[in-house]
Design brief:
With 239 residues, the chain is α/β, with parallel strands linked by helices. It has two domains: 165 residues, P-loop containing nucleotide triphosphate hydrolases (Rossmann fold); 61 residues. It is built from ten helices and ten strands. The strands form two sheets. The chain has a six-stranded mixed sheet, with helices on both faces. Strand 7, helix 6 and strand 8 form a beta-alpha-beta unit. Helix 3 runs parallel beside helix 5 and helix 6 packs parallel to helix 7. It is globular, with a radius of gyration of 18 Å. It starts with a strand and ends with a helix. The protein binds adenosine-5'-diphosphate and magnesium ion. Adenosine-5'-diphosphate binds next to strand 2 and helix 1.
Length: 239
């Protein structure tokens, strides 16, 4: 069995089927990206993995165990960390204090310093988090995830609102985290330049299920994906 295995997940909201018989397997140590138009069910899928929502049917297996429908804190304790779109940091605490609070003893002081270096915040670790630039806040939240020593991290649009330089730095950060910390990563993203830079397998979601999986080059040539991405056609062309 794979590290994370999503099997035939279904989630309905009233008459709307947000996640429709969705299956995906992730190998340990891999980076994968999930893309798709607004409302196609990406965030709902993350909610099913983290236990924020319970699927109507289907299963989530993590490290060979069925974790479907477990409480979110129990799923987090098994090693799944999730980053939301809007950074959930404590503005009045320093960047370092945010990391320490997030760690709750999961990592040591020296490891906190390593995380600060990794997320490029060593120089501003003593500053109040509320004073950091938008991109730095996003990285701090990624650092807070790492402080909990997860083995799988789910990132929901981590480059939202970032400049081009910050976006590229975030792609580098994700690859470094994957290599240095041996963390498996699943990232939801819209920005095609970011995804191309990541160079990881890509899964295109439409109406609650996977339309196509493949490399960036494969996906970019695919007529069905191009039709789906009419609005971002240019993005696919120029990325
Ligand atoms: P994405 O993250 O791909 O933009 P979402 O997973 O947020 O999409 O949403 C998928 C669909 O489910 C959308 O039509 C959205 O309006 C709907 N939806 C999401 N969460 C809820 C909810 N808690 N209650 C009702 N409808 C929801
Ligand atoms: Mg979403």
């Amino acid at each position: 069995m794979s590290f994370l295995e999503l099997r035939s997940l279904v989630k309905n909201f009233g008459g709307l089927r947000a996640v429709d018989n969705f299956s995906l397997s992730l190998e340990e140590g891999s980076v994968n990206a999930l893309v798709g138009p607004n409302g196609c069910g990406k965030s709902t899928l993350f909610n099913l993995i983290t236990g924020a929502l319970r699927p109507d049917s289907g299963h989530v297996f993590f490290k060979g165990e069925d974790i479907t429908g477990l409480a979110p804190h129990l799923i987090a304790r098994r090693g799944i960390g999730r980053k939301f779109q809007v950074p959930a940091i404590f503005d009045e605490l320093t960047a370092r204090e945010n990391l320490v609070v997030a760690a709750r003893g999961a990592v040591r002081q020296t490891e906190i310093a390593d995380i600060e270096a990794l997320i490029r915040l060593s120089d501003v670790a003593a500053r109040e988090a509320g004073e950091l630039a938008h991109g730095q806040k996003q990285w701090l939240e990624i650092g807070m995830l790492l402080a909990q020593a997860p083995s799988l991290i789910l990132l929901d649009e981590p480059t939202a609102g970032m400049t081009e330089a910050e976006t590229r730095a975030t792609a580098e950060l994700i690859l470094t985290i994957n290599q240095q910390q041996k963390v498996t990563i699943l990232v939801i993203e819209h920005d095609m330049a970011f995804i191309q830079y990541l160079g990881c397998p890509l899964h295109v979601m439409s109406k609650g299920r996977i339309l196509k999986s493949g490399s960036f080059a494969d996906i970019r040539r695919d007529p069905e994906v191009r039709a789906l991405y009419f609005g971002t056609h240019e993005a696919l062309n120029h990325a």
